[in-house]
Amino acid sequence: MSVTKRYPNQERYINLLTDFGFKRLFGTEPNKEILIDFLNVMLPPQHAVKDVSYRNNENLGNTPLDRKAIFDIYCESQTGEKFIVELQKAKQNYFKDRSVYYATFPIQEQALKGEWNYKLSPVYTIGILDFIFDDHKKDSTLLHTVELKNQKNKVFYDKLKFIYVELPKFTKTVEELESHFEKWLFLLRHLSELDAPPEALQEVIFEQLFEVSEIANFSALEQEAYENSLKYYRDLQNVVATSRQEGVEEGIAQGMEQGIAQGMEQGRQEERLQSIERQRSLILKLLSRKLGDIPDPLQIQITQLSLTSLEALGETLFDFENEEDLKQWLNRELRIEN
Fold this sequence. Notes:
Layout: H1 19-26, H2 32-42, E1 52-54, E2 58-59, E3 69-70, E4 73-77, E5 82-88, H3 95-108, E6 123-129, E7 143-149, E8 155-166, H4 180-190, H5 204-213, H6 220-257, H7 265-291, H8 296-303, H9 307-316, H10 323-337
Parallel strand pairs: 5-6, 6-8
Antiparallel strand pairs: 1-4, 2-3, 4-5, 7-8
Helix pairs in contact: 6-7, 7-9
């Protein structure tokens, strides 16, 4: 795919893998036809969606100590199905666990006071992943549908589904696109690289997509918000690339050190402490990029976190919308630890 930039210092269209880009396209009422089209391309034909209503994307636990969940997009179809649509830009150790945990909120909120027969509406989690699951490295399949089955591989419960797309596995050029689904994946990966809508993507729904994604149509505040979101996304990609390189180098070093471990325990302990400090510094950098300058009291709280809680913060920071979210999370976490 050859692309000539119209704007020398700026793309014409937004990057849909930024928080701003993803939520602008899928999370606003004027663009819900785009969301409906995307949902229908991800779902089986028998589950076609005709209309959606947006729901509050912030869900609180039942007690003050419970963690809260902040979904990227949370909506409900005209027939009652609940949809969580999540963009995951970097690998997380317990992403599958997090997906299951998040799915419990739309289930719990269906509970009725008084007598209730426990009938539930279906809940779908759709994850757009900018990474590949470790256990899928050798599998070329990029679309995964997960549901509860019994030992005979028969569906036990058909109202809870997880649908994941591993974007890095999609490598087709615009000339090779064959289906509406593939066109969507191409746009998710390459919209910001385009100078104009290619002929293969000149459909009515995509015309609307290109229009709402054109940076020139943004207000000054929207452009500033997008630039901040883009910087955050690029910082995150740099962190991922650095961590990957450090992992390779560490693996090589460990291989060389096999058989000469005696007397090295102290050095390994120091290395672990340095690794924790690097992780803490990276987390603070990402938090600052997303929320602005982090006050000293909150930075001190972060230094008091255990390694487990620090890893949890690294997985949760993508959900914070403001400094107050971070403050509440730290207070809950430190109360739990103590």
